[in-house]
Structure formats: structure tokens, C-alpha cells
């Protein structure tokens, strides 16, 4: 392994006291973070908490630490949402919340609950855009820790009623949205000094990765966790890579507020060990404040190319990819096509298919739900067994089976395992009986979930089913088994529960990003990745930067997006754009090169 640089080693050795590390692209940030955790574990007795912004980053850091430390029980690596969910799980009773609350998995579920909340207060509203706006406003108030009761001076009394009705429904059904996780954990930390004291006692060292992506809510929670203890906290990040402003992130939290609040020792990592010289020079033309210096031993390639239209652009990119694979013997996994938006990849996908070149679409290419009605029904039942007060998914079951629920039961889990009525002719009664039996087994002992899936798998093989349907059901069962296997690998058997398993899925922990073949990924999806060869596609005005970016802050973030895209490249980076674009209504429209092109080619 390459030795740490003098500055990297100094950061690793600086253990006690607050620390801010500004780490440019390719500067070895993850390695420094990992080595620092290892150093703390070897030299100090306290436990370490490292907070990240993605499950992927948490897994990567954890894997690296396992290679260097025999006992990793003294370190916890978690996303902020996952850690806050643990605070909520252990302390919800202290703020009057029920235990075992479930996280809503989709925005569509939120809209269904909001529609019910509107009905309850006599407001008629069904326009999808208006519903999204209301949910956005609720999210904004929760991020500022404002309850409906605290908005008594607001003029919009109808919204306050909607917000209140929505919250009451969520609590009645023991449901959480993602904003609730932070909202309630902050409430617990604020109202129960003992909780923050316990966290400070348990963890003597705090590390926050990608600190430029913190928002005000998250920073307040971190400060609350440290309020009663030490200042052994390290922030590491790069303000030039701040690209989550739409989620409220603010790089000033790292560069200004953290400095004012904690007076940390400051280090800068500017040596880029990833990208070739020409790629770094291009990134610096875009962001002159970037202080990266190249440590890569080759000049590299950086080119900007225009094409008559999107088809010519896609055709050229795929021809170049084919040459890289066949002539330069590059692995497809070392090639990425990066776009500001996912729709830009359509022509590239067509030509890759024509050439029989494998590709992936990162996280978005993964299946997220069961494809068959049979296994969707099974999965809805699992949601009810994990949260028997969830009226909304219970209603989905009855709708899917074309039946009415039985009002005799107070708990919906008891109702579904005792109701054999199935009025859906597309779901076989024989298989529905198997599903009810499976639900009953899991109801008795939710740790049998994996075994029940195995039994379902074996049973479906013996049934007389249409072959294609049987194939799809088996795929769904294997998909669910894979989720359960990953959950079991990360939790001890004593701590497993069906409710926490569903929350594990809702937090995205069961997802796996495939990078086999050529990667077709958005800028946000490319964060933290690196490739020998990068094509940045569709760089025209209105596309990159996005047409919605109007303010100086928004345009700065778009520039940060381009900076991130360029610095994913190690050896070659090509920026492309069409002179004409075919519009959805059938006519073509002239395109102007992005203003970033001017900066990059001057």
C-alpha cells in the first residue's frame, strides 16, 4: 500500500480536539478517514461514531476498517438518518410516540395519506402538483422543527389544518416519513438531556464525512449530540463538491458555522492522486478556487466535441467506447457516461444494445418492488404484520383482493391472517392459501421470514402455474430473500425484527449499486465514484446547467455538479453536446453550448 503523505499522516495522528479537513477530489479522503478511525481505535479507548451521507459510503469505510482492525465493535459507521432512527427507536416513548413505527417507503404512499388527511378536514384537492407542493411545504416546516401548533400566527390557516391532519394520521398509523426521523430525534435530544449525555458518553470521537452536504437540520442534531460532552469531532469535505442544495445542504455549515462553533484545527488536502493533468486543469478553469495539484504521472485527455444532433452524439460516444474496449483493452467498468438528467442516455443505450455492450444504470437500474400481484400481496401483508396499525397498506390488500375488510378486528394483522376471501380472479386461490399460511408463520415468529420464503419457493415449483408467471414469482421470491440475507448479515439474531427489517429496506440499505459494464449515471449518482474514461453528455444551455437554475446560488451548485462530473475521470474526459435536439412533440430545436463550455475551453 502507498504510504500516506506527510499532511495525510498529520491528520491521522491528530486525534483529540476539533478538526476540519477540506479534501479536494482524488486527495485520498476516504483513506485518510479510514486510517484516522484505525488510529483512534489503536491509540485510545473510546468508541467512534462516523456519520456518512450514503449507505454505499458507510459500507466502503466499514470494509476498509475490517481489513485493519480485528475488533470493530468500538466503531459505528452509519448514515445520519439511520443513526437518528436508532435514537427514535430507543427513546420514542419519552416524547409520547408509539414504539415500532414504520418508515413510509414511497412518495406515492405520502400522497395517499395526504389525500386522506384532506378528506378528514373537508378539503378537496387531487392535482398531483398541488399535493407535491403541500408535501414540500410540510417537509420544509419539519426541517425547521416547526409543528402545526407552533404556526398559530401563520395566515394560511387551511395549510395548518392540513399539516395537523397529516401528522395525526401518521401517528395513528404509526408511520414516519424521512423528515420525521430527524424531526423527532432532534425533539428527543432537545427535551431529554440524558439521551445526548449517553451518546457523548458512549462515543468519544465523532467523524462526519462529506460535511459540505450537511443541512441545517442535520447540523443542529450533531451539535445536540455533542452538547454535553467533548469536542473530538472531525468534519471532512469539499465545498466545490456541494451539489445537494435542493435538499437544503449548505457548504457554509462546514466552512463557516462549524469553524465559529468549534474553532477546529484546519488542514487542506490539495494533492489529486486520481486525475491526469489536463483533467485537473479543466476542473480549475471551471472552479479557479480549486487548489488541486496533479500527482498522476500522465498528461491525460480532455476534449470538448459538438455534434449535429443527439443521435450523432450517442453514435460517436458508443464508437469511442467500442474502441476503448477492443483496441485499448479497457474494462467496460472503467467507462462512464455521465448526464445531468437520466433522459439523456436513450440514444447511448440504443447504440450500446446494437453493439452488444453491457451497461448499468447505477442504483436506478435496480428492481425496487415485486413485479407480480401475488408477491406484491405477500409483501403488503408483511408490512401489516410489522405494523398492525397501518390502515393504508391494509386498504391496499383489500383493494388488490377486491374485498371489504372485517371491522371485527382492532389489529389489521389479525384480520389478514384470518380472512380467506379472495375476489381477484387473477390471483389463484391455491397460491393465496399459501400466502395466508406464510403470514401466519411469520405472525407467530417474525424471525422465520427467511424460512417462509424458502417454503414459498419450494411450493411454487410444485403448483400448476403458467410458466412465465411461475418464473416471475420465483424472481420476486429471490429478490425478497436477497433483501433478508443482507439484513441478517448486518444485524445479530437477537436484534432482528420484521419492523426493523422493513425500515432497513426503506432506508435503502438493501440496495446494491451494480457497476458491471459501462456506467450510465447522473452526476448525483456518480458522486464518490471514479473511472479511467468519462463522457459527459448533453452539455447545452438549459440542460447543464439545468434550466431551473436561476439564482447565483443555484448556478454555483450547477457549476459544482460539472466539477464533480469532470473529476470522476482519471485518464480521459470528453464533454459532448448536440447542436440540435428532437423535442417530444416531433420538431427539432437548435441548441446553444452551455456557458460551462466557454469556461472549459478558454
Automatic annotation (TrEMBL):
Domain UvrD-like helicase C-terminal: 270-528
Single GO BP term: recombinational repair
InterPro entries given in the database record: DExx_box_DNA_helicase_dom_sf, DNA_helicase_UvrD-like_C, DNA_helicase_UvrD/REP, P-loop_NTPase, UvrD-like_ATP-bd
Domain UvrD-like helicase ATP-binding per the UniProt entry, residue ranges: 2-276
Enzyme class: isomerase
Listed CDD domains: DEXQc_UvrD (cd17932)
Binding site for ATP: 23-30
Record Pfam families: UvrD-helicase (PF00580), UvrD_C (PF13361)
Family: Belongs to the helicase family. UvrD subfamily.
Protein name: DNA 3'-5' helicase
Amino acid at each position: 500500500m502507498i504510504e500516506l503523505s506527510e499532511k495525510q499522516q498529520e491528520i491521522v495522528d491528530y486525534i483529540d480536539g476539533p478538526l476540519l479537513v477540506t479534501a479536494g477530489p482524488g486527495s485520498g479522503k476516504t483513506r485518510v478517514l479510514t486510517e484516522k478511525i484505525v488510529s483512534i481505535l489503536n491509540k485510545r479507548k473510546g468508541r467512534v461514531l462516523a456519520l456518512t451521507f450514503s449507505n454505499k459510503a458507510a459500507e466502503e469505510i466499514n470494509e476498509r476498517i475490517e481489513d485493519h482492525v480485528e475488533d470493530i465493535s468500538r466503531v459505528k459507521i452509519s448514515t445520519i438518518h439511520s443513526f437518528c432512527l436508532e435514537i427514535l427507536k430507543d427513546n420514542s416513548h419519552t416524547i409520547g410516540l408509539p414504539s415500532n413505527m414504520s418508515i413510509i417507503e414511497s412518495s406515492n404512499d405520502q400522497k395517499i395519506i395526504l389525500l386522506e388527511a384532506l378528506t378528514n378536514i373537508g378539503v378537496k384537492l387531487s392535482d398531483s402538483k398541488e399535493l407535491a407542493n403541500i408535501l414540500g411545504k410540510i417537509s420544509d416546516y419539519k426541517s425547521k422543527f416547526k409543528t402545526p401548533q407552533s404556526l398559530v400566527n401563520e395566515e394560511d390557516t387551511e395549510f395548518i389544518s392540513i399539516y395537523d391532519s397529516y401528522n395525526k394520521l401518521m401517528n395513528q398509523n404509526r408511520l414516519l416519513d424521512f423528515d420525521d426521523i430527524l424531526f423527532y430525534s432532534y425533539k428527543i435530544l432537545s427535551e431529554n438531556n440524558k439521551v445526548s449525555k449517553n451518546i457523548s458518553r458512549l462515543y468519544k470521537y465523532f467523524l462526519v464525512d462529506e460535511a459540505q452536504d450537511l443541512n441545517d437540520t442535520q447540523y443542529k442534531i450533531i451539535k445536540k449530540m455533542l452538547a454535553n460532552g467533548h469536542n473530538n469531532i472531525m468534519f471532512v469535505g469539499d465545498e466545490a463538491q456541494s451539489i445537494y442544495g435542493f435538499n437544503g445542504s449548505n457548504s457554509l455549515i462546514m466552512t463557516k458555522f462549524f469553524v465559529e462553533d468549534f474553532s477546529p484545527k484546519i488542514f487542506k488536502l490539495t494533492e489529486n492522486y486520481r486525475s491526469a493533468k489536463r483533467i485537473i486543469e479543466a476542473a480549475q478553469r471551471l472552479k479557479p478556487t480549486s487548489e488541486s495539484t496533479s500527482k498522476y504521472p500522465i498528461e491525460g485527455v480532455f476534449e470538448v466535441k459538438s455534434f449535429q444532433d443527439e443521435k450523432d452524439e450517442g453514435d460517436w460516444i458508443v464508437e469511442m467506447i467500442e474502441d476503448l474496449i477492443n483496441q485499448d483493452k479497457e474494462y467496460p467498468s472503467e467507462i462512464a457516461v455521465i448526464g445531468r438528467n437520466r433522459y439523456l442516455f436513450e440514444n447511448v443505450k440504443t447504440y450500446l444494445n446494437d453493439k452488444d455492450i453491457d451497461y448499468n444504470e447505477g442504483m436506478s437500474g435496480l428492481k425496487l418492488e415485486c413485479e407480480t400481484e401475488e408477491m406484491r400481496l405477500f409483501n403488503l401483508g408483511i408490512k401489516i404484520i410489522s405494523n398492525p396499525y397501518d390502515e393504508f397498506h391494509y386498504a391496499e390488500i383489500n383493494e388488490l383482493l377486491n374485498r371489504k375488510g372485517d371491522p371485527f378486528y382492532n389489529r389489521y394483522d389479525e384480520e389478514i391472517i384470518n380472512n380467506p376471501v379472495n375476489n381477484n380472479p387473477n390471483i389463484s386461490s391455491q397460491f393465496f392459501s399459501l400466502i395466508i399460511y406464510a403470514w401466519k408463520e411469520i405472525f407467530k415468529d417474525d424471525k422465520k421470514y427467511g424460512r417462509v420464503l424458502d417454503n414459498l419457493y419450494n411450493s411454487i415449483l410444485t403448483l400448476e402455474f403458467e410458466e412465465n408467471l411461475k418464473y416471475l414469482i420465483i424472481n420476486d421470491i429471490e429478490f425478497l430473500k436477497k433483501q433478508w440475507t443482507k439484513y441478517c448479515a448486518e444485524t445479530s439474531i437477537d436484534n432482528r425484527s420484521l419492523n426493523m427489517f422493513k425500515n432497513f429496506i426503506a432506508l435503502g440499505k438493501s440496495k446494491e449499486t451494480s457497476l458491471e459494464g459501462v456506467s450510465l449515471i447522473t452526476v448525483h449518482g456518480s458522486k464518490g465514484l471514479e473511472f479511467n474514461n468519462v463522457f459527459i453528455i448533453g452539455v447545452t444551455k438549459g440542460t447543464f446547467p439545468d434550466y431551473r437554475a436561476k439564482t447565483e446560488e443555484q448556478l454555483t451548485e450547477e457549476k459544482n455538479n460539472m466539477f464533480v462530473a469532470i473529476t470522476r475521470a482519471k485518464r480521459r474526459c470528453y464533454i459532448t453536446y448536440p447542436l440540435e435536439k428532437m423535442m417530444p412533440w416531433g420538431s427539432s430545436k437548435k441548441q446553444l453550448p452551455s456557458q460551462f463550455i466557454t469556461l472549459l475551453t478558454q
